[in-house]
């Protein structure tokens, strides 16, 4: 993924500015604390391309406003997109605080008692709250000796989660969402709203007409050598399955072969449109070589493209996966049906985890009774209470979604740098490509079919756009579920056996939407959802608060919620309402609607 240089993490060692003893006694200790945090971040966190996260530390401790200003200048020069203030002692809050309104910020006040680091933490957070510059507060549970340079586990977790989410915010800033085509079948999420991307995510919306695909395919505006390589790889790795079309809608072998060829061309063209390709410049296509600086995109597909041309299943499946004919690499985020809101959700999930994201229709709630009626079998599972949700895209999903990768023997989706070659093979083997259903896709194409292995901890989200409110987020942690073969088959054949299926059981806590799996579906805000690997609802909550996007449904336990300290001033009895009030008060991160 050819993204511009990634933003760094700016570390601000603040200090008591009083010379004549106090400051001198603290200089080395304070700088050591900053260096320890920088080492932790570089050791534990990666950028989406797998390279270690870089930190930039202020040239001196910050004891007053001049040093604070010098640090801000350095952070601007060095492209620091996240701000982390650390200190073991008292400092002068309003004189040393970071006042950049657009950079996610946190403060770690060392919990020692020889010097009042925690008192500064509270004081400077009060300043942030008073000035409308919300900041995250990090304070260790246990008192540490002044000489203790260890970063305790609870502080470490908050530091790393803050930086993960802060970098997601910073990396999105200035990038594009590329709308490939327009509104798909009247899906509201594909009525792309530039203001949402600009004001909440600091991004821009780029748009291309679908004729750009037709034109590039017809004129051969893609790398011919890569095309041949990709087509050969597809023939060797993408097995074709049963043609479910009726005799009079079955397409000929030759037609399907040409649909494979077009599908591969479309994948190359979509990627080139997103991030550019220097090879195109060598072909005399200098403007096309630029791409649209897109970190996420959507493909309109249905309709009208798919009335005349092959569907985008192969394009979307392979670009969203962590591998292709060139080997393992970061996914390219592409939303089916140009559902830009789901595309934003996929982008969040990828930036938080660096793993592929499953795009799916939230198609059906299957109660245990309905499962028994449809399959003749009664089905029970320790993680299933009243029923399960059928996630199945009328399109593809990342092949990582097969669940053929593992962490500790448990199905997972991993960053590309952790995926083994054998796991890539398993993901490909677990996927069958069926000739698409002609009545849906008269232009043909191949549909992606797999079933996600059960037992994967997963988080399902949806970003919705609410008139008068702006974007709002839903989160449901849960697990993928294995159905017995015959039960799955009965339900899958009845639904659509040419598309990718994930059976999902949300974790229920008996409250609100999480009273039952039925209520989770009943409350879902749109036809699509994104599934990420892992129980990462807490990361989505932190990210949403940085972007001032309220969360109106989640099943994350209270102790895992980490938001700016100012959020507490909007209410502590009902965190959901407080979140809404805080987001309304601060407005979108990059400007009011
Ligand atoms: C049946 C339609 O063709 C599908 O595309 C539709 O079910 C959707 O995916 C809507 O999100
Ligand atoms: Mn859909």
TrEMBL record:
The record's principal subcellular location, in a coarse class, is cytoplasm
Domain L-fucose isomerase N-terminal-2, first and last residues per copy = 175-353
Its required cofactor(s), as named, are: Mn(2+)
Q: Where in the cell is it found?
A: Cytoplasm
Pathway, per record:
Carbohydrate degradation; L-fucose degradation; L-lactaldehyde and glycerone phosphate from L-fucose: step 1/3
UniProt keyword annotation of Metal-binding present = yes
- Which Pfam family, any one, appears in the UniProt record? Fucose_iso_N1
Q: Which residues bind Mn(2+)?
A: 337, 361, 528
UniProt-annotated catalytic positions: 337 (proton acceptor), 361 (proton acceptor)
Domain called L-fucose isomerase C-terminal: residue spans: 391-554
| The L-fucose isomerase N-terminal-1 domain, residue ranges | 7-174
Q: Which UniProt keywords apply?
A: Carbohydrate metabolism, Cytoplasm, Fucose metabolism, Isomerase, Manganese, Metal-binding
Q: What is its EC number?
A: 5.3.1.25
Task: Please name the GO terms that the record assigns under molecular function.
Answer: L-fucose isomerase activity
Reactions catalysed, as given in the entry: L-fucose = L-fuculose
Record-annotated membrane-spanning stretches: none
Q: Which InterPro entries does the entry mention?
A: Fuc/Ara_isomerase_C, Fuc_iso_dom3_sf, Fuc_isomerase_C, Fucose_iso_dom1_sf, Fucose_iso_N1, Fucose_isomerase, Fucose_isomerase_dom2_sf, Fucose_isomerase_N/cen_sf
Which family does the similarity line name? Belongs to the L-fucose isomerase family.
Q: Which HAMAP family match?
A: Fucose_iso
Alphabetical list of PANTHER family matching this protein: L-FUCOSE ISOMERASE
Query: According to its UniProt entry, what is the function of this protein?
Result: Converts the aldose L-fucose into the corresponding ketose L-fuculose.
* Name of the featured protein: L-fucose isomerase
Q: Whose protein is this, by species?
A: Luteolibacter soli
């Amino acid at each position: 993924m050819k993204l511009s240089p990634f933003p760094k993490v700016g570390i601000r060692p603040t200090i008591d500015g009083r010379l004549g003893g106090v400051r001198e006694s603290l200089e080395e200790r304070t700088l050591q604390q900053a260096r320890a945090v920088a080492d932790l971040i570089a050791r534990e966190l990666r950028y989406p391309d797998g390279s270690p996260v870089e930190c930039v530390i202020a040239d001196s401790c910050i004891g007053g406003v001049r040093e604070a200003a010098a640090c801000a200048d350095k952070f601007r020069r060095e492209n620091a997109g996240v701000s982390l203030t650390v200190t073991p002692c008292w400092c002068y809050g309003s004189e040393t605080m970071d006042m950049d309104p657009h950079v996610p910020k946190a403060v770690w006040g060392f919990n020692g008692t020889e010097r009042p680091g925690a008192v500064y933490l509270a004081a400077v957070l009060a300043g942030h709250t008073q000035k409308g510059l919300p900041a995250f507060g990090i304070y260790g549970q246990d008192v540490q000796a002044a000489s203790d340079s260890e970063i305790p586990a609870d502080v470490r977790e908050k530091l790393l989660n803050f930086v993960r989410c802060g970098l997601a915010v910073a990396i999105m800033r200035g990038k594009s969402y590329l709308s490939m085509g327009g509104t798909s079948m009247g899906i509201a999420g594909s009525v792309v709203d530039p203001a949402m991307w600009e004001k909440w995510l600091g991004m821009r919306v780029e748009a291309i007409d679908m004729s750009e695909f037709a034109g590039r395919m017809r004129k051969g505006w893609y790398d011919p050598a890569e095309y041949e390589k990709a087509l050969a790889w597809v023939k060797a790795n993408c097995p074709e399955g049963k043609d479910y079309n009726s005799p009079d809608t079955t397409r000929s072998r030759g037609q399907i072969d040409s649909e494979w060829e077009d599908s591969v061309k479309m994948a190359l063209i979509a990627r080139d449109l997103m991030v550019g390709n220097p090879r195109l410049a060598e072909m005399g296509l200098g403007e096309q070589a630029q791409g649209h600086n897109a970190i996420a995109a959507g493909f309109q597909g249905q309709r009208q493209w798919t009335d005349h041309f092959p569907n985008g299943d192969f394009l979307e499946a392979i670009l969203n996966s962590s591998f292709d004919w060139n080997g393992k690499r970061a996914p390219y985020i592409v939303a089916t049906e140009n559902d830009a809101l789901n595309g934003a959700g996929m982008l969040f999930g990828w930036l938080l985890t660096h793993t592929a994201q499953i795009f799916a229709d939230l198609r059906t709630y299957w109660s245990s009774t309905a499962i028994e009626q449809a399959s003749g079998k009664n089905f029970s599972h320790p993680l299933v209470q009243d029923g399960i949700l059928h996630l199945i895209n009328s399109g593809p999903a990342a092949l990582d979604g097969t669940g053929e990768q593992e962490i500790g023997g448990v199905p997972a989706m991993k960053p590309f740098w952790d995926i083994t070659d054998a796991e890539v093979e398993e993901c490909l083997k677990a996927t069958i490509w069926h000739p698409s259903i002609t009545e849906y896709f008269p232009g043909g194409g191949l549909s992606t079919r797999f079933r996600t292995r059960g037992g994967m901890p997963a988080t399902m989200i949806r970003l919705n756009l609410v008139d008068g409110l702006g974007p709002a987020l839903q989160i449901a942690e849960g697990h993928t579920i294995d159905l017995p073969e015959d039960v799955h088959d009965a339900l899958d054949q009845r639904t659509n056996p040419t598309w990718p299926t994930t059976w999902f059981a949300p974790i229920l806590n008996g409250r609100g939407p999480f009273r039952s799996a039925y209520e989770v579906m009943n409350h879902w805000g749109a036809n699509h959802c994104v599934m990420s690997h892992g129980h990462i609802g807490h990361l989505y909550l932190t990210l949403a608060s940085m972007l001032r996007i309220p969360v109106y449904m989640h099943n994350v336990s209270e102790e895992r919620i980490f938001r700016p300290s100012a959020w507490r001033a909007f209410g502590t009895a009902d965190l959901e309402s407080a979140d809404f009030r805080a987001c309304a008060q601060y407005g979108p991160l990059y400007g009011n609607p």
